[in-house]
Specification:
CATH topology of one domain: Alpha-Beta Plaits
Oligomer: single chain
Radius of gyration: 17 Å
CATH architecture of one domain: 2-Layer Sandwich
Strand content: 5-15%
CATH superfamily of one domain: Nucleotide cyclase, GGDEF domain
């Protein structure tokens, strides 16, 4: 794909939590799981995810997002999707979002790209300790106070996500894709559930503050991309 030197991008860099549990014989299952989620993200978010999720080093990956306003929503969709897969081990990923320019992207391999968005994303992932979700941005995008506010918001979402059950992840994933509660309930695995049951899962997961946080992040990013 052609990279615009003036455009703002988001790069998501992730690594699988507890990857040491995946012995050599189960590594193909891990790879297949990442590819399955990659296809799902491309289907669900369309042009915002132009390239496949690109694995490297066995348990790490990168994903390019051409609409930065969707970066946090996509990161949450990836984590909830991974946790819903019927794999041998509980599957989840740390994710760091880097917002900025891109210098080059050779061979349409995201893991081979470079530029501020890549550097910020990779460094933010390395700096993660107890958190599993992080945000970094080039200094010219926002004042320090705004970025610190967004980073605090991301930290709180991460705290909530750690506690989500499988049912809550499924309800949240549908909500992230802007499906109605009725649609989420009708597409429930094995047997449909009521709209009221979906609403309960969302409420217990803390969807309202997550939704409000996403709205703030997406509004601020949209303002950036709409600047002349």
């Amino acid at each position: 794909m052609k990279v615009s030197p003036q455009a703002l991008y988001a790069v998501l860099t992730g690594d699988v939590i507890g990857s040491r549990r995946w012995q050599s014989r189960s590594r193909p299952e891990l790879y297949d799981a990442l590819q399955q989620v990659s296809k799902q993200m491309q289907h669900d978010f369309g042009k915002a995810v132009p390239l496949h999720l690109d694995p490297f080093r066995g348990d790490s990956w990168q994903l390019l997002v051409t609409q930065p306003a969707l970066a946090l929503r996509i990161a949450l969709a990836i984590r909830t999707s991974l946790r819903l897969l019927p794999t041998s081990h509980r599957l989840d990923s740390r994710i760091a979002i880097g917002l900025g320019r891109i210098d080059f992207l050779p061979n349409e391999r995201t893991s081979q790209g470079d530029g501020p968005a890549f550097q910020l994303s990779g460094q933010a992932l390395m700096n993660l300790k107890s958190q599993h979700l992080a945000l970094a941005a080039t200094p010219e995008l926002w004042p320090d106070s705004t970025l610190q506010l967004l980073q605090t918001v991301v930290h709180h979402i991460d705290f909530l996500l750690e506690k989500w059950s499988a049912k809550q992840c499924r309800a949240i994933l549908g909500a992230l894709l802007k499906q109605t509660q009725e649609t989420i309930g009708q597409s429930w695995p094995q047997k449909a559930i009521s709209q009221q049951a979906v609403a309960q899962h969302l409420q217990r997961a803390g969807w309202n503050p997550v939704q409000q946080s996403l709205a703030v992040f997406e509004s601020l990013c949209t303002d950036l991309t709409n600047k002349p």
